Fold each of these.
Amino acid sequence: MDQLLRLKDDITARFNGYHPLSPRRPISRSLVWRLALTVIFVFLLSTVFSIHTTYLGRSSSGAVTSSDLIAHDTLDYLINFPMTGTEFGQMGQRVQLINHRLGYLESESKGMTAKQSQALAERLDDAVIASFPFLRNPTEPNQNMRFQALRDSFIKGSRGIVMSLNKKDFRYACHLISGVRTVLHSTLPIQIAYAGDEDLPVQYREKLISLGKDIETVDLLTMVDDKTLDLAHGTFGTKPLAMLLSRFEQVILVDADAVFLQPPEALFDSDGYKKSGTYLFHDRRLNKGGFKERHDWWQSHLKYNPPSATLLGLASYSQGYSAEQDSGVVVFDKSRTPVLLGLLHICWQNAAAGREYMNGKVFGDKESYWFGLELCQVPFYFEKHYGNGLGPRDDEGKICGNAIAHADEKDRLLWFNGALLKNKYQDNKEYGNFTHYMLDGHWLPQNGGNGISCQDQGEIFMVNQREKDVLSGSIQEAKLVDEKFKDLIST
C-alpha cells in the first residue's frame, strides 16, 4: 500500500514538473500517448484513493492502513456478490469474515475517528443485509443499519421462551404453556411466532394469550422480507427465525409437543451453556452406517474448515449414525456475536432455496443448528447423553414409547418430546404412562413406522415422585385445556 502511495506521488510530481517543449519543435506522437496514459493512470489512482479515504473518513492526520483497505474490499465483495441459497459451506466462510470484521471494529474502534468507525459499521451492516436479505424491513426496505437495529431490539439481560406455531399444533402448545405456567410455575415470558393470520388465526392467538401472564404473539411477516423465505410454504422455516427476531437476548426455542419435567429456567444453569452460549440436544442413535448420501452431503460443506472437537465427538460424524439433533429444544445466547451470526446462517439455511435444497437430505430444521454453527466455526454444546427412551418397562427390560427423553448434566429428567399422549400418531385421546426411562441404551429398529420405538441394554431408572407429580399435574392441566378449548381442538 505504501508503495502504491509513493508511486502515485511520483507520477504526479513528474507530471507537474513537466514543461512543454518549444512550439518550434514538433511533439512526437509517442510522447503524446505517454502523456495521455500518464494522465489516465493518475486519474484512476486518485479515484481509487478518493473512494477508500471516503470510506474511512481519512483526515490529513489519519493514515490508511492495509488492514483498513482489505476490510472494505472484503465487505464490498460480500455486498456486490451475494451467495446463492445452496452454498452452505461457503456461506459459513462469509459469516466467519463478517464475524472477524465485527471483532476488528469492536477492538480497533478506539483508534478510529468517529467518522471512520461509522463508515466501517455501515459497510458491515450492508454486508450482513446483502448476505441475509430477509432481514430487510418489509415496510422500509432501504432502512439503514438494519442488522444493528435488530441487535438493539434485544432487551439486555432478558430471557424467554419462544415457539413458532400454526393452528395444527395449537393443542400441544396449550398443553405446554399450561404445564410450564401452572405446574412448574415458570415466570419466563413466552413469545409465540406465526406467519400471517392464515397460519394462526386470531381466535387461536386469543386463547393462547389467555393461558397466563407474559404471553404474546408476533407475526413474522411484519418483521422480515418474505421474498427469499416464502414462510407460507415452509413451516419449519419459521422456527429459527422466531428465535432470531425475538426480543429476548437469551432464548429457549421449543416445539409445541415438548414437555418439561423441570422449570425451563434450569436450561440456563447448564455449565456447557454458560461456556458456549448454546445448548443442543441429541436425537436417538439409529441406523448406523445408513444414509451415506446424507453424510457425503454434510462433508461436501464441512470441508472448508478443520473439524471442531465437538464435531469429532458426534455420533453421526464419527460413527456414521443417521441423525444427530433433536431440535425440540434449542437454547441460544444472542448477546454473543458469533452465536448470533451462526443463527443468521441457520435461518438462511431454512429459507425457501435452502429448504428445497435440503429436501430429501435431512428432516426439517433438526440438523441445521449444529450444522450452521460448525460451518461458521462457532463453538457449541451438546448434552452428554443421546436421546433416551421414556415409557413403561416391559417384561424383557425394554423401554418402549413415542417419547424421546433428555436428561440434565446430573442425569435427571429435563424434558421430552412427543407430547403427553401415549402415541400422538395413532391416538389423540389416550395419555401416556411414563414410569421409566433409560440412559445410554441401544435403540432397536422401529417396527412398522407406528411411532413407537424401543430401547434396551441401558441403565434403567424409575421416574421419581417429583417427576410423577409433574407429569400427573401436566396431564390434568392438558385435559382441562382440551375441554376449555374444545371448539378449536379436535380430539
Note: Residues 373 and 402 are 29 Å apart (CA to CA).
Amino acid sequence: MAENLKKRKRDRKTKSSSSAACCSVTAREKILLDKCNFSALFTYVSCEGRKGQRLKFSRVFLRQSIGLVSSTLFRPLPHSSHNVVHEVQFGESFYIKGRKAKNLTDAISFQDPAWPDLDLVYRFLVLLLNSPRTDPLLVTPYIQPSFILNLLGLFQSEDARERAALVSVLQLLYQKFKGHRKFIRKSVFNIFYCCVNEKHNGIPDLLLFLRSVVEEEENDLGVQEESKLFLVRGLIPLYKSKRLALFSSHLNSCIEKFVETDCKLAETVLQGMLRHWPVAGSSREYFFLDGVERVLLETKPHVFQQLIIPLFHRIATCLSSPHHMVAEKGLSLFKIHGNIQKLIKQNLDVILPIIFTDLETSARNHWRPQIQKLAHGVCFSLLDMDPELFESCWIHMT
C-alpha cells in the first residue's frame, strides 16, 4: 500500500511538472519570439523535431507563434490588372490550349514581390502544426473560426504560389482539427454559393481542397448528405459561370471524385450539366464534354439509359461543331475503351440514329481535315459494331 501511494505521488508530480512545462515558455523560446524572426523559429521547430525530444512546445510559444503568423499573413492583398487584360485578350480558346501549353498560362500569372518572406511563414506554420512536439490540445484554442475565415480570405490572392500553400495549410487543419471540419466545409461551401457569377481567384484551389475532403469522406462513411446538397447547389451551378474556362479542369476533377465515391450521383451530375449546357457552337462545350467523359466512366447502365436521348442530342451537335477542339473532344468519346465503349455498344440502336447526320456531316464537310479523318474513324468503328444498323441509318439519311 505504501509503495502504491509513493508511485501515485510520483506520477502526480511528473504530470504537474510536465503541465507546468507546457504552460511556461522556455528561455530559448522567449528569445526567439522576441526577435520575431521566422527563419530562426523555423530552424528551432525543425531541429527540435528531428532530435525527438519529448518536451512539448509551451502554451505561450504556440499562442505567440500563431499570433505572429496571423499578423504577417492576414494583410491587404496586392492586385494587378495584368491578368484581367490577358483574360479578355485570349478568352476561352486560350485556356483550352493552355492546358497543353503550360508556359502560356504561366506567362500571365501574377507574382507577389513579398512571396519569399510569405513562403517561409507558410512553411513554418505547416511545420509547427505537424511537429510531434505540438500538443493538439494546447494549440486548438488558438485555431479559432476567425483564423480559418482569414485564411480562406487569402484565397483571393492573385499569386498561385500563395494559393497552393493555403491549400496545404487548409488540408492540414482539416486533418488535424476534426472539431473544425464542419465549420471549414460550411465556410468553403459559402464561398462557392457567393461566387457563381463573381470573380474569385481561389476557386480552382478550393476545388482541389474539396476533392481531398471527398476522399476523406470516402475513407470514412461515404459522401455525406451535406456534401451531396452542396454538389447540387454549389458545384453544378459553376458550369454556368462566365469564368468556367479558368477552373473547368478542377471542377470536372472534383465532380469526378464525387461520382467515384458514390456512383448514384452520376444521374444528378449529368442532369445538372444538361440543364446548364451552352448554346451550340460555343467553345464552352469543350469543358462540358470533358466533364461528361469523366462522369460516364463511372456511370451505371440503368442511369445511362435514362439520359441517352437528351445527352446524345447535345453530343451530336458537338460532332459537327465549327470549333475544331469541341468536335475533336466529342468524337473522342467514341474512341474511349472501357465503360464508355461498353455503354455505347449496349445502346447503339438508340445512339446511332441521333448522331448519324452530324457524324456524316463532320466526316464530309468539316473545314479541318484532321476532324474529317477522326470522324471517318468513328464511322468505321460504329460500322463494325452493327453493320445492319449503320446501313439503315445511311439509307434513312439519304
Note: Residues 2-23 form the longest helix (22 residues).
Amino acid sequence: SKSTNVGIPQDETFLPCIFFEPTIASDSSSKPKTISAAGLHFIATHQYRPGSPTYLDSFLNPFWTFLTDLLPLWLAPNMVTTFGGLHCGLAYGVLWYYAPDFDVSPPDWVVALCAYCTMAYYTLDCMDGKQSRRTGTSSPLGQLFDHGFDCICTLAHLATVSSYVVCGGTYWYILLQTTLQFAFFMAQWEEYFTHVLPHCAGKVIGVTEVNYSLGILALANSLIDREAFYSRPMSAVLGEAFGRQLPIFVRELELRHFLMTGWGIMSAVLMILSIRRVIFHPRVAKPSYTTVQRLKQQVNALSKLATPFALYVGGFLIPPTSVRTRYLSVTMGLAFSLITKKMIVYGMAKMAFAVVQWDAVPFLLAAIWIRYDDRLTREGADFVLGVLCFWYTWRMLRWVHLTIYQICDRLDINCFTIKKRKIM
C-alpha cells in the first residue's frame, strides 16, 4: 500500500504492518524519501507539549535562562544541541583511548573530564529550547534533533559508568547496555502511542536529576580507588552483622555486580510500568472498543517491541570473551540508535512502524554467526563487527541526512543556521 499523498492526511499510528511500512510516494525530486507527505504535514503542525517540571528543574531554570541569554542571537538552537552532543563525543573518544574495552580503569582526570562532559551536555540540552524561543526559531525539527542526540549520547553515559566499574568483557556490560537502550526505545514507543514522553516520576526524580547525578557520581569516582571500592564483596560493604542476614549469593556479590543487578531490576520495573501505561491508555484501549478490538490494538502496540527485544537478546547471544567489548557495544548501540531514531520521527509524523525493522537483521545474523560458528576466530568476529560498525554509521548518517533534508524543505528552515526571512 501507499501512504496517503493527497487529501486529508491519515494518522497511521495504529496501522498494522509486520514486515514493511507503507510505501512512501515519490515526487519529482531524485532524493529518496524517509517521511511521507502526510507525515511531513503532521510534523509541520506538531505542537510541543512540555511535561511537568521537577523541583530541581524549577530550581535550575533561572540558571539555564541566564546561560542562554549569554549566547549570541545568530547562534541556531540546533548548534547548541550539537555543541552539547560534541561533549559526549569528546568523553567517548577519550575513554576509547584510555579504556578501550572497559576492562581497565581510566586515569582519574579522564573520569573527571567525563563528569564535566556529562553535566555540560545536559546543561546545553536544556538551553537549546530556550535559545529557539529567544530567537523565534522554534520548530518540530528542534525537538527531533534534541531527542536524536539524546539517543546516541546514551552510549557516552554508558561508557563512563562502565569504565569506572570495569565491567568490560562480561555479560554484566551487555546487561547495562541492552537495558539502557531498550528502556530508551520504550520511552519513545510510549510517546508514539500516547503522545506523552515519560521524563519524570512525580516532582522528585526525572531526567535532570539522573543526568546531573551521573555527572556528580563520575566526579566522585575520580577521587577514589575505584577498583578497590567496586570489587569489595557485599559482606564487606554491609558489615558482618547485617551481611549474615542475606543469602550467600548476595553476600558474595561484588559491589559493582550488586549495583548492576539493582539497575537491571529497576529497568525491568520501569519497562513493565511503561507497557501498562500504553496498553491501558485511552488511545490504545478506547472505551468504545469491544474486548476483541481492544485486544487487537494492545497486541499491535506490543508487537512494535519485537525488533528492539530481538536486539536485546542478540546482545546476549555473543559470548563477551569472544569479541572486543567496544566493537560489540558500538555495533549494537548503532543498531538500537537507528531504530530508536526512526521511532522518534515516526511518532511525530504519525507514520506506521513495522514490527520487523530490517536494519536490525545484519547485527542479529552476525550475533548468530559468532555464537554458533566454532571456526570463527576472535579476530574474525572483531572484523565482522568492525565492518558492521562502518555500515551502521553510514546507514544512520544517510537516514538522518535524508530525514533532516525533508523536514527543512517542508518547514523552509535551515538546520544549523537561522534563515533570514524574506521581507515582503
Note: The first helix runs from residue 37 to 44.
